[in-house]
Structures are given as structure tokens and as C-alpha cells.
Amino acid sequence: MSNRTVTSVSLVFKSCVASNNKVGIFPYKSVILYSKPSQIFSLLRNLVVLVAMKGRKKFTLISLFVAWCVVDFNPAYSQYNLDYGGLLGVSNYLGEIGGTKKPGQGEPGKPFIADMRLDQTKFAVGGWIRYKVHPLVSVKANLAFIRIGAADSTSDYLNRRTRNLSFRNDIYELNTQLEYNFYSANNISPRGRKIIDFNAYGFVGGGMFWHNPKAKYQGKWEALQPLGTEGQGVILGLKQYNRVQAQLSSGLGFYYTFKRKWRLGWELGTRWTFTDYLDDVSTRYVDPALLQDGTPTGDMAAALSNRTNTKLAEANNLITGMPGSIRGNPEKNDWYMYTAATLGYVVRGKGNFYKQKYRLLTGNKRRKKRTTRAKF
Questions:
Q1: C-alpha–C-alpha distance, residues 161 and 159, integer Å
Q2: What is the pLDDT of residues 199-252, one digit of tens each?
Q3: Residue 243: how many CA atoms within 13 Å on its side-chain side?
Q4: Of 73, 101, 117, which marks where a domain is finished?
Q5: Which candidate, 33, 115, 149, 279, has a CA 20 to 30 Å from the CA of 259?
Q6: Residues 6+ apart with CB under 8 A from 330
């Protein structure tokens, strides 16, 4: 490695150290935010030298630079980088079942979330853990139980009410999301007796979930996936859909820290899935004779695949439920979403730096000053 390279790396690290070891940084504050202009200029200038290098040395040195500067080495900030807690809220979904019509046009549904039926709202409960990898960026893992459901009988659209399908689905999801704090109001009084910690963030992420759509049959909720209500597993080439699926997530949220260790917040999240079977409806009606195999399970599959309200169909001269006719819309996958209140506990470290600089935040009493008497 050349002397120029060593000098550049040394200068970059010195810039990072200068940025991370400033006087007067409070917890949660960005390293760059409170740097002096000369420090930021020095850091950027030496970073340009690294970028101008070639080959593997360039990649290695830039990686070291990022590891040093992005991962926070500020001992005051690092005391508040971990919290965990729970969430409790409500959930809903967008799919083929339920929904509303577009007034005056008789179309199947309004666009996007306008087609959602609020009277079919269910619940969501779960836990989470979050780690702040940078003053503005956090990584969060969620484990949640989310119930969704809907019924055509609640729809304003005549064709859906005539179809008369319904379902309930219990979803168990494991999701990871990357949060970016786009607004923060963080401050501590000079005496350390008052703290304001409010953060608003947006997030994107993804994960996996297990789901099991069910419908009520003779007073009991029966799993629909094993029945193959659209001919899965019966018609050659049609496989049963997988109950383990992937999803992408996005949303908004905020939290407020009170009493130095509790965080109360709110979050709204949307899940884009890669399946059209959250409601067990996607393609076309199948001939019930293919499902009836002379067993109680076959009879149940045939009954749940076609639940047409014949009285309503006859009264309005509608023909629905015929084999091969449209049952769902395979061109659009199903979504689900939730909004929830969150309550978390902040894990605070208590290193020597923290005790010395922020003793009042820990609740420790001040040491009494030693009184020195004058001698005569």
C-alpha cells in the first residue's frame, strides 16, 4: 500500500473520529448534524481521495470508512439504540370478496383502498424489536398475528352479493423493515432534567407469512386450501396454493419517549403479497361434480366452492356460478394492512461516558461536593 494511501486512510479516520467525538452531543443526535463545517469538509475531501483509488484496495478502504462512520461510535448516542415492545391494532384487506360499488356506475369496486369495507375490520397483535444502526436509520423485526376477513353479503355491488362468498384468514407474519427518521424533535435541557424525544419515520421491508383461509360450513370454520375449491389438486395441472408466502411492506409511523425509558407510538403498514388466495378466490368456478368424490369432504368442497344466493339471482335475472364462469380476478394479488398503537421499552447502556456526561438521565444522585475548610 502506498504512502499516499496510508495518509488518505489516516486522514479519513481522523475526520470520522473528529466527527464522532465532539463536545456537546446529546443522545439520538446525528453525527454529521453537529459536526463543525471544517470537520465535514475534511471528511468529504478525504473520502474523495478514497473514491479516486482503483481496484480491491478502493473497495476495502471505502468499506472500512463506511463501517467506521455510519456505525455510530458516539458513546452518548449508543446508550439509546435498542428498544422492544408490542403492538395492538386493527387490520383489513383488499381482494375479491366484499368491497363496495362505484356509485352510479355499477362497477365491481372503487380503486385501491376506497374499495375497503371498514365494517369488516379485524384485529392485529404482535411484538417487535428495533435497533438503531444510525441516528436516522433503524432496523426493526416484527412478529405478528393478523386476522382478516370479508363477506360478499356486505357489498353494495349486486353481483358480489349474489356470489355470496365469505372467508376469514389468520395470518402469522415475520417481517423485517428498514426505518428512516424523516422528522425528529430531540432535546435535553442544559441541566438534563427535561427531555423531548419525538420521531416520525417511513419504512420499507419484507418478510414471510403463513395463512389459512377458512369459511363457515354447518356452524364450523373449515380450512379452504385442502378442499381445492377452484379445482386445485383435482384438475390436471392445477396445484394447491402454498400457505407460506412472501410479502413486501411499507408504511409510516411515529413514537414519543416519556420517562426516559418508555416509547408510545403509532404505525400504519401495508403488505403487498405474491398470492391471490388470501380469500381463496382467484380464477373461475369449477364443475362441482369434480369435487364431489362421495365423501363428506368432497361434499363440503362442492358446497363452499359455489355459494350463490339463488333467490337474489332469480329476482334480478342474473346467471352466476356456472362452471367456467368468473369467480375472481387472477390479474391482481391480494393485500392486507394494519394500523396499530405501539408501546416499547428503551434499553439504555450505562458506560463510563454515559455516567459522567448524562448522570441526571440515569436518575443517579449527584455526588456531594466536598467542603474544604480554611485553616488559620
A1: 6
A2: 999 999 999 999 999 999 999 999 999 999 999 988 878 899 999 999 999 999
A3: 14
A4: 73
A5: 33
A6: 276, 282, 283
